[in-house]
């Protein structure tokens, strides 16, 4: 089946070097013409992009697709639908499935299933077997399959000696290890940020120092081993400062922030609503402000969702018993835009943190036939793979947890009005989503 | 701040104004008289159904609440969930919905997780929720009965009634709370109630048993425990969970006792009029010596006795006016 020719009309075409009003013509999975006004062949599907930004489809570095093992919360198919609605053309599936993605068979399973999904699905492999932090997973075999990111996410690798060896082993393979930074000797048993709110609520805290100590430790291990490292969902002002300092020293480190960490603060937990429980936890208002400032300054490599679906029954447990995590894919871009200043935001920064930056971290700027994904986060120019989003920076909408594409409904944003939404998502030249409707 | 718990829930003392607290204390005072009658029963909650839902077992608190409910003529559904469905991983929402289906007006609940009663109040908004202790969060009726007991003792000394004195007797009162403040729901409720009534609260504990943000609390941290004892009008001791003494928070129970226990030797530092309190159950020989617990300065039994009228007041105020509506869940 060949896809119809598409033409995107009258949008602001964003960069990476300049932005200009124009049209984009797409055929056979690629961009075939870009200009102030292109002539479309008859039968071409027209997408009105007036008032919209047209740029590379978003790339999520941090998606929990739950398959295999927890299909009652999400599947690769439904998670990819949520991604498409959010404006994503690619996601990186996290390995904390059941069983974990710690074997060639499991990685192959997700990659194969991913090929049928609405968006491109890349895989992050586990660093250790069963994500137990004891024994290295077959990192070289995964690398040969095209896996570029490795993490035990959900857990950080607690043992410094093992982490050092994993970095040393991974370094010549030109892959990146990604860390969920929380030292469990400090965070264990905690269910929210340690601070004024946790103290008042009588909930055990996960202190900022638990995250920052592991960031410090890993920066030093990167200095020692030379392996490149990506810091997942940094949530405190100090963590960001540490990574920026390391980067300024020339160390191969990158970092991401998650929308909930720059949108919500610890006081959200005062309702005892487990929808606000997440690891690392929602931090202080000062941390939220610092993350937003860093985003606007353009020093953050990526916004990543940490999209973490959970069944309703698991979120109907007591706060300290409920699992951590919240949905993110469908709201992330709108929340990112709000943090960057709304419709007045710099669209270059917007596409940098949502597409070009994460595509660089995941090494998805080039097509990779082994893992079956096309090129993401590129320029909107002739010859590029047509992975694009048409984003309306003004469209207001109210989040309704009962109308999400995700199989789960654990959004912390239910009832919130968000400005900015993907009007259309194009993956490999195919229109997968238009005005909130999956195609 | 809420000015009255009438028709509402009681999950925390953090949101109650002084007026709301005094209303409970005054109402409780009128129920003290009922408890001294030959027929200890009033028809105030006749026809109401109150579920007593203890996810964490506490015979003393459960009996106190159930006695209070029965003296108000309510029907009591006593459910020992600690050992049943919850262990099989049933969600909080399913458990409460099942009990709600039996037709209840109020639920008295104890849970080992902080905030569980707040969640339940969202799941069944048409049911009144009374927190009988949740995790390390709040134990509102304990805070109220502690304040009630202090007011009762001070009013008797002043030759007046508690009701006439309102909150006056708390002005400038030095209350010292000792022990595991960090993990204690009783401490959190006591600090709310005493400070709202105008008392000055000092806390004394090893650093590891203080919350990390104690500097932001409306209390003074004692730098010298012995000195703090000498100036205290009320000393409230807290139960030290035995597992805290296993080395993680304090090196040993013995070390805790020697530094922060109210030993007979230390009790000599107290002025004769100082009131000694303990929410029970006591670890005799750990946070308090037996001789001190049994001394005339200790009002520990009076606290237990006052639990019934205070809980009668709470049940009456929250539940008397309610009618069973078919409210939507959540
Ligand atoms: Zn994580």
Automatic annotation (TrEMBL), chain A:
Cofactor(s) the protein needs: Zn(2+)
Pfam families per the UniProt record, alphabetical: DHOase
Any GO BP: pyrimidine nucleotide biosynthetic process
Domain Dihydroorotase catalytic, first and last residues per copy: 56-237
Keyword DNA-binding: no
Keyword Signal recorded: no
GO molecular function annotation: allantoinase activity; dihydroorotase activity; metal ion binding
UniProt keyword terms in alphabetical order: Hydrolase, Metal-binding, Pyrimidine biosynthesis
UniProt GO cellular component terms: cytoplasm
InterPro entries assigned to the protein according to its UniProt record, in alphabetical order: DHOase, DHOase/Allantoinase_Hydrolase, DHOase_cat, Dihydroorotase_CS, Metal-dep_hydrolase_composite, Metal_Hydrolase
Record-linked CDD domains: DHOase_IIa (cd01317)
Database matches in PANTHER family: ALLANTOINASE
NCBIfam families: pyrC_multi
UniProt protein name: Unannotated protein
Organism: freshwater metagenome
TrEMBL record, chain B:
GO annotation (BP), single: 'de novo' pyrimidine nucleobase biosynthetic process
Keywords on record: Pyrimidine biosynthesis, Transferase
Function: Catalyzes the condensation of carbamoyl phosphate and aspartate to form carbamoyl aspartate and inorganic phosphate, the committed step in the de novo pyrimidine nucleotide biosynthesis pathway.
GO molecular function: amino acid binding; aspartate carbamoyltransferase activity
Xref: InterPro entries: Asp/Orn_carbamoyltranf_P-bd, Asp/Orn_carbamoylTrfase, Asp/Orn_carbamoylTrfase_sf, Asp_carbamoyltransf, Asp_carbamoyltransf_Asp/Orn-bd
Leading EC class: transferase
EC number annotated for this UniProt entry: 2.1.3.2
Stored HAMAP family: Asp_carb_tr
Organism field: freshwater metagenome
Record has DNA-binding as a keyword: no
Pfam families: OTCace, OTCace_N
Matches recorded under PROSITE patterns: CARBAMOYLTRANSFERASE
SUPFAM superfamilies according to UniProt: Aspartate/ornithine carbamoyltransferase
Aspartate/ornithine carbamoyltransferase Asp/Orn-binding domain location: 172-317
Protein name as annotated: aspartate carbamoyltransferase
GO CC list: cytosol
Family assignment from sequence similarity: Belongs to the aspartate/ornithine carbamoyltransferase superfamily. ATCase family.
Aspartate/ornithine carbamoyltransferase carbamoyl-P binding domain sequence ranges: 9-152
Catalysed reactions, as listed in the record: carbamoyl phosphate + L-aspartate = N-carbamoyl-L-aspartate + phosphate + H(+)
Pathway(s) where this gene product acts: Pyrimidine metabolism; UMP biosynthesis via de novo pathway; (S)-dihydroorotate from bicarbonate: step 2/3
């Amino acid at each position: 089946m060949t896809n119809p020719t598409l033409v995107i009309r009258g949008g602001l075409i964003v960069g990476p070097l300049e932005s200009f009003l124009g049209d984009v013509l797409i055929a056979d999975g690629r961009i075939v013409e870009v200009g102030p006004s292109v002539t479309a062949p008859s039968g071409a599907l027209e997408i009105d992009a007036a008032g919209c930004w047209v740029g590379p489809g978003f790339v999520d570095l941090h998606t929990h697709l739950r398959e295999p093992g927890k299909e009652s919360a999400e599947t690769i198919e439904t998670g990819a639908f949520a991604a498409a609605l959010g404006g994503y053309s690619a996601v990186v599936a996290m390995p904390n499935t059941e069983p974990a993605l710690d074997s060639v068979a499991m990685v192959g399973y997700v990659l194969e299933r991913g090929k049928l999904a609405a968006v491109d699905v890349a895989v992050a492999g586990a660093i250790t077997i069963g994500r137990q932090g004891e024994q290295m997973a077959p990192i070289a075999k995964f690398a040969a399959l095209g896996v570029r990111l490795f993490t035990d996410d959900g857990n950080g690798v607690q043992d410094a000696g093992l982490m050092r060896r994993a970095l040393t082993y991974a370094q010549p393979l030109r892959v990146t290890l990604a860390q969920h930074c929380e030292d469990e000797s400090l965070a264990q048993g905690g269910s929210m940020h340690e601070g004024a709110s946790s103290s008042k609520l009588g909930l055990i805290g996960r202190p900022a120092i638990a995250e920052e100590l592991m960031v410090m430790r890993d920066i030093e291990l990167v200095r020692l081993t030379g392996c490149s490292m990506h810091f997942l969902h940094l949530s405190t002002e100090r963590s960001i400062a540490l990574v920026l300092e390391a980067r300024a020293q020339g160390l191969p480190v990158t970092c991401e922030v998650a929308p909930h960490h720059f949108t919500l603060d610890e006081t959200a937990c005062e309702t005892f609503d487990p929808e606000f429980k997440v690891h690392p936890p929602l931090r202080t208002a000062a941390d939220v402000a610092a993350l937003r400032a860093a985003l606007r300054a353009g020093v953050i490599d990526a916004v990543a969702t940490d999209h973490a679906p959970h069944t309703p029954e698991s979120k109907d447990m007591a706060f300290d018993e409920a699992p951590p995590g919240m949905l993110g894919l469908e709201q992330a871009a709108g929340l990112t835009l709000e943090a960057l200043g709304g419709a007045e935001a710099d669209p270059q920064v917007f596409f940098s943190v949502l597409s070009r930056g994460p595509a660089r971290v995941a090494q998805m700027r080039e097509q990779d036939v082994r893992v079956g994904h096309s090129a993401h986060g590129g320029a909107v120019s002739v010859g590029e793979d047509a992975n694009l989003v048409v984003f309306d920076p003004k469209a207001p909408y109210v989040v309704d947890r009962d109308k999400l594409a995700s199989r789960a409904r654990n959004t912390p944003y239910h009832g919130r009005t968000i400005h900015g939404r993907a009007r259309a998502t194009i993956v490999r030249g195919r229109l997968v989503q238009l005005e909130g409707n999956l195609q | 701040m809420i000015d009255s718990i009438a028709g509402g829930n009681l999950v925390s003392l953090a949101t109650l104004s002084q007026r709301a607290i005094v209303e409970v204390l005054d109402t409780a005072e009128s129920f003290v008289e009922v408890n001294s009658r030959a027929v200890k029963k009033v028809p105030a909650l006749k026809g109401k159904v109150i579920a007593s839902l203890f996810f964490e077992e506490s015979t003393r608190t459960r009996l106190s609440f159930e006695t209070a409910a029965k003296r108000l003529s309510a029907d009591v559904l006593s459910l020992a969930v600690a050992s049943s469905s919850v262990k099989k991983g049933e969600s909080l929402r399913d458990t409460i919905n099942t009990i709600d289906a039996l037709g209840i007006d109020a639920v008295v609940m104890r849970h080992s997780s902080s905030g569980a009663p707040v969640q339940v109040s969202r799941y069944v908004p048409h049911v009144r929720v009374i927190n009988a202790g949740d995790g390390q969060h709040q134990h509102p009726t304990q805070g109220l009965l502690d304040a009630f007991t202090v007011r009762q003792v001070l009013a008797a000394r002043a030759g007046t009634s508690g009701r006439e004195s309102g909150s006056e007797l708390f002005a400038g009162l030095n209350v010292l709370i000792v022990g595991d403040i960090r993990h204690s729901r009783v401490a959190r409720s006591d600090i709310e109630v005493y400070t709202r009534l105008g008392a000055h609260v000092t806390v004394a504990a090893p650093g590891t048993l203080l919350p990390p943000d104690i500097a932001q609390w409306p209390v003074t941290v004692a730098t010298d425990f012995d000195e703090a004892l000498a100036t205290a009008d009320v000393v409230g001791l807290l139960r030290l969970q035995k597992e805290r003494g296993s080395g993680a928070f304090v090196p040993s129970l013995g070390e805790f006792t020697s530094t922060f226990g109210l030993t007979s030797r230390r009790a000599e530092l107290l002025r004769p009029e100082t009131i000694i309190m303990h929410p029970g159950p006591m670890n005799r020989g750990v946070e308090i010596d037996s001789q001190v617990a049994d001394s005339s300065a200790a009002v520990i039994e009076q606290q237990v006795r006052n639990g019934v009228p205070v809980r009668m007041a709470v049940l009456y105020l929250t539940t008397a006016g309610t009618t069973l509506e078919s409210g939507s869940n959540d």
